[in-house]
Design brief:
515 residues, single chain, alpha+beta, Jelly Rolls, signal, 2 domains, six-stranded antiparallel beta sheet
């Protein structure tokens, strides 16, 4: 019985191993077929490997879900997944991943993965791919995007030539939190790209067998190598010293400098805020908003900007935006995508080279400037080097609009500023004297009363005036008593007393005879 059970268990294990082996073979032999120059497949069409996790929380993903790398940041080769495809129409293809920044609050983190296409052939004048290649996107706030780039700060597209036959592309984890939904390869010379159109592309048909043609051995992509003509380098774009720029809003020598009030990155109709505003041919524009409502009529205007750490050359064009009623709130609202302004009037253009980490200047047509909020849109007019501009998130290097006018320009501007922001009239606070506390009575020293001296005039004996009656203290007391008694009797009582007093005084005043 135990032997029979052991045999059954071995049989089941063998069957399971055979099924697993068949599944792996089927997965390895599932070829996505190119049709009309397009190949589209879901990443979950292959089993997740390593720390790739199947996600279904985001309802705006396509297919049955998406894979998000939950492993550590690092080099290629971890969690490698291989996708086979068969090319029936050889030619130059561009690779795009529908991806998302799955966590964090930064557009330069959790935003990249590794890819490798061993059988692809480098295309002249396109970025060469040598083995594992970092691919990234910078859309934040997070949203699914088909934007796929390589080379930091240069934003190069990912392109390869694929001969007819069987090929594969490999995907490996690089940045924790980077989510991938779908992969598309298309002949970019024949298929027009847009975010909405690619979201609607049907999945490619799948064959369980290979075509039998090894694409890596084909000569379909043998490009004719010719000697490149010697091209003289372009003149450098005007450079300015940021140290001598006036302060924002300060008008000096009939010139005022305005820093941007808002800027944003437009990538294929998706607007986002970012530290660097990338500009690339056709699909990447920089939007910069200024407030010119207080600026008088101008005779000259210039746009100052600082490049990031990538040099290059090409033709840069500056347009007026069709409106300035935009902000970052419309980034992910599909109903508000029309709020992103279009490029209208060309206001400035320059062909030349730019230097990394340098302040540059482009002359603008001042007659086209309007009063109020305006948007300047920077585009690359030719399929040459892309470049990046430091945004207003770095205040000291933010884009600036330099506007100049006539002799009364600064006086008019300063008056406009004063009228718009009148100084507040500050009423002086009333001065309140602190109360003086009286000294306590106990602390005062006693003061002796001051009795003025009494001067007694000499008595003239011939004076016939009414006799002067000297009243002593006792007499005054008696007199007071008499007054208290009142009546005529008091007068007759006092009369002899007064006469006696007068007689005594006159006698004492007589000279004494000498015997």
């Amino acid at each position: 019985m135990k032997k029979h059970l052991r045999k059954s268990a071995v049989t089941l294990l063998a069957i399971g191993a055979n099924l697993l082996s068949n599944n792996i073979v089927l997965a390895e032999d599932a070829y996505h077929l190119e049709e009309n120059g397009v190949i589209v497949f879901d990443v979950e069409s292959e089993p997740a490997d390593g720390d790739w996790q199947l996600g279904t929380e985001r309802l705006d993903s396509l297919g049955d879900g998406y894979y998000q790398w939950e492993g550590e940041n690092g080099g290629p080769g971890r969690g490698t997944m291989r996708y086979h495809f068969t090319v029936q129409t050889p030619g130059n293809y561009q690779i795009r991943l529908r991806s998302l920044i799955g966590k964090g609050e930064n557009n330069t983190e959790h935003n990249d993965s590794w890819i490798r296409m061993p059988s692809g052939v480098d295309i002249p004048e396109e970025e060469p791919l040598d083995g594992w290649t970092k691919i990234y996107q910078n859309i934040f706030p997070a949203a699914w995007t088909w934007d796929t780039r390589t080379v930091d700060f240069d934003s190069r597209v990912v392109r390869q030539c694929f001969p007819a036959g069987d090929h594969y592309i490999e995907l490996s984890g690089r940045s924790n939190g980077h989510a991938i939904d779908r992969i598309a390869l298309y002949r970019y010379d024949e298929v027009n790209y847009s975010q909405a159109a690619f979201d609607e592309l049907p999945l490619s048909a799948v064959s369980e067998t290979a075509s039998g043609i090894d694409g890596s051995n084909s000569t379909d992509c043998d490009f004719e190598i010719t000697e490149e003509p010697i091209i003289e380098p372009l003149e450098p774009i005007t450079q300015v010293d940021i140290e001598i720029e006036p302060d924002t809003g300060q008008c000096l020598i009939d010139t005022v400098l305005l820093k941007s009030t808002l800027d944003g990155q437009d990538i294929n109709g998706m607007l986002s805020s970012t530290e660097l505003l990338e500009v690339a041919y056709l699909d990447r524009r920089a939007l910069i908003k200024f407030d010119t409502s207080l600026v008088p009529a101008a005779t000259e205007a210039y746009l100052n900007f600082t490049t990031a750490n990538n040099a290059g050359e090409g033709q840069i064009s500056v347009y007026l935006g069709s409106h300035s009623d935009w902000d970052h709130a419309a980034d992910q609202d599909e109903d508000n995508q029309s709020s992103i302004p279009d490029s209208s009037a060309l206001i400035g253009s320059v062909t030349g080279s730019w230097i990394a980490n340098t302040r540059h200047q482009i002359a603008l047509d001042a007659s086209l400037l309007q009063s109020g909020f305006i948007t300047l849109i920077i585009e690359m007019s030719q399929a040459v080097d892309a470049f990046s501009i430091v945004s207003s998130e770095t205040a000291e290097a933010a884009p600036a609009l330099l506007i100049a006018g006539g002799q009364q320009f600064c006086a008019t501007y300063d008056n406009n500023v004063l009228q718009a922001n009148p100084p507040e009239v500050v009423q002086p606070e009333p001065v309140v004297e602190p109360p003086i506390d009286p000294e306590p009575v106990d602390s005062l020293e006693p003061v002796e009363p001051i009795n003025p001296p009494v001067t007694q005039e000499p008595v003239d004996p011939t004076d016939t005036k009414e006799p002067f009656v000297e009243i002593t203290d006792s007499e005054e007391s008696a007199n007071a008593n008499t007054k208290n008694s009142g009546g005529a009797g008091s007068f007759w009582l006092l009369l002899p007393l007064g006469y006696f007093s007068y007689y005594r005084r006159t006698r004492s005043a007589l000279p004494v005879k000498q015997h």
